[in-house]
Amino acid sequence: MKRLLRALAWLLGLALLLGFLGGLGAYLFLRASLPQTAGRLGVKGLSAPVEMVRDRHGLVRLRAQSLEDLLFAQGFVHAQERLWQMEFQRRVGQGRLSEVLGEAALAQDRFLRTWGFYRAAQSAYARLYPEEKRAVDAYVAGVNAFLQSGAPLPPEFRLLGFRPEPWTGPDVLVWAKMMSFDLSGNWEEELLRHRLLARGVSPERLLELLPPYPEDAPTILQAQDLRLSLPREEAPAALRGMAPPRFLEASNNWVVAGSRTTTGKPLLADDPHLGLGAPSLWFLMALEAPGLKVVGASLPGVPGIVIGHNDRIAWGVTNVGADVQDLYLLEDVEGRGYRHRGQVVPYRVREERIRVKGGKEEVLRVRETLYGPVITDALKDPPRTPMALRWVSLDPEDHLLMAYLGVNRAGNWEEFKEALRHYSAPSQNFVYADVEGNIGYIAPGKFPIRKAGHTGMVPVPGNGEWDWQGYRAPEEWPQVLNPEAGLIVTANHKVTPAGFPYALTYDWAEPYRAERILELLGAKERLSPEDMVAIQLDQKSLLYRDFRPVLELLTPLSERSRAWRERLLAWDGTMAPGSQEALVFALWYTELTRLPAREVGQAFWDEPRYLLKALRTGDPNCDQPETEYREGCLDYAGLALEKALDRKEALRARTWGEVHRASFPHAVLTHTPLKRLTDRGVAFGGDRYTVNVGPFDPETLRMTHGPSYRQVVNLADLEASLFIHPMGQSGHFLSPHYADLLPLWARGAYLPMGLAGEGRTLLLEPAP
């Protein structure tokens, strides 16, 4: 019956779509816009034929006779399967969504134009190395070959009534800038601290609300792994180690030496946690050409493989969260300029013309400084003092693509490190393994050298006293080869141990995921590939372990609370989607995070160590002003449990997965009736702190970030390696590969990374 109802719902949605587009003719048009996947196809720009093989899941293997032809074909197949996604991404980077979406996108375009992402991409393209430029141009030629092939466009173009412009080099580079923006949130943390201080919160109180990273918590690198030769840099005691109140873009990776595996060779696992949507962020494929054989996750719109392995090495990435952004407080002089080194420096004003669907055009005047744009001009609630942004990803030169192309071809640790010398931002925790049995780690990036006393944690005067003094040399980056422990774990927690010469940042993710991974890796003498999978899928909450003593101490306010407290105390803390206890614990913890709302001006404050200290030793926020009784913090915890159970009853939900669903919305059509065809959602477990992560909006319990890709690489048998991503390979909502991988991802299944090459074959051939 359920299947029948789902089928009827699908048919109803399809009928609505067909009616909207004009009936059967529109349906046939949409079906015709699915890509050609078999036969022969002549395209201009190739020097020799390229074989394009799709397996039964739509995974693609490309075989070419030169690197340029290979990247041409990659651009072509990305456009075949994800052209709308690529168009949307480049319009985001260009700040040109209003042209096709109307005034609803105008505020976002103003913000993006103010930052100048596309201007930075144009500047970087003009300064690419010759080899790098050839790669970009080959990829762009492949995208344009698809646009010129006469194939029907994806349905979004018809729905919105426009055709895509030809692709250019900056269109490729701008999405890397946007990814860097997503993974570099220090400017928001600086602004948050600035606003809290302006609210009267003292620096000492900030240390309580935003506790420093625990001294006894794990770090990625160990003291014995490092050679410390530079003077140690410390933050002022009043600000040292403050952590941000949120960390959405998280990830896990780890690598285990052969001495600790059942295979005798290293095992490498990676699962980057990023925004979820329809289609998936990633596109899985294998690339083969003379001197290159690589497989893994690619980004539509960008050449090469971002995460994966070639025939000699494997690598995985997680976000370092390095502080590569600074806000500078400007002493504005009558709106004409700002004071810098005793002189009034005039603003450089650039005009951005934003066209809006319907004929309207808006002229945006952006003020530029020696540091960068005055970004507070684009904020909805700007502070009184204007602030300019200094950020490495707005530098005029950027060779991130050169780094990844080098990694794709690297055959050993030295070649891997040499490739990453070109790396800029966002800094990533690269774990490494090779078929010779070596494992390694490096955190590459352009790390600013700041003057002593400048932590990068709060805005500083833009008067010239606090300007950056260059970047750290690659030799100074955190790195290790074959550490004594025989394993390396990264989960966005602190990279360096005490005594490291300089600070990458003072904002680190809570160590719960890292602690759990280390706990599981240490549970066996020898670890198998199956153990790597089990760890990636683990949803036991160490957050629950920390808060369990609070449950033991609180006084229940009703018989209902008493019964649930006993159930929670008997629970093992696994945030499984089918668990009732997981639902109640998540709701209770969410209520606890409301504790400092009046003080900080935010409804929720997800800072476990602040909450634990408050509940154990007291906090002024625990007393409820609406009551005559003076509540203590355990009283607050008991009241939070009552409110959690009230919310559970209002939700009419029994299990965690009923309300905690991983959501995959279409970027545009989710706001239309067509969302029935485009959007997807599945029950999911976990929380922000579990290894198999499940962060959620505390208001809606909706999960919009999560494991965007999983891989487990077996260096003893590369063909036995595994990977998966949610949704599917196609961005076309009528394709059988639009969401066929979602059930596999949701239940923790994987696909073989071998890509044997069997399936439907399309031969791209040079056209005259």
Terminal residue distance: 56 Å
Roughly how many Å is the radius of gyration?
A: 26 Å
Average per-residue pLDDT, rounded, comes to 93
Quick one: CATH class of one domain?
Mainly Alpha
Assess the beta-strand content as a share of residues: 15-25%
Low-confidence stretches are 1-15, 229-248
**Corresponding CATH superfamily of one domain:** Penicillin Amidohydrolase, domain 1
Report the CATH architecture of one domain. Orthogonal Bundle
Q: Main β-sheet: number of strands, strand sense, barrel status? A: 11 strands, mixed
Q: What is the CATH topology of one domain?
A: Penicillin Amidohydrolase, domain 1
- Count every beta strand, where a strand is a DSSP E run of 2 or more residues: 28
How does the helix and strand content classify structurally? alpha+beta
- Tally of alpha and pi helices: 24
Coarse shape: globular
Task: Characterise this structure.
- By secondary structure, this protein is of the alpha+beta class.
- Among the domains are: 150 residues, Penicillin Amidohydrolase, domain 1; 118 residues, Aminohydrolase, alpha-helical knob region (Penicillin amidase (Acylase) alpha subunit, N-terminal domain, Orthogonal Bundle), CATH 1.10.1400.
- The protein contains 24 helices and 28 strands.
- The strands form six sheets. The chain has an eleven-stranded mixed beta sheet with strand order 1-28-2-3-6-7-8-9-17-18-20, covered by helices on one side. Strands 4, 5, 21, 24, 25, 26 and 27 form a seven-stranded antiparallel beta sheet that branches.
- Helix 18 crosses helix 21.
- The N terminus is likely disordered.
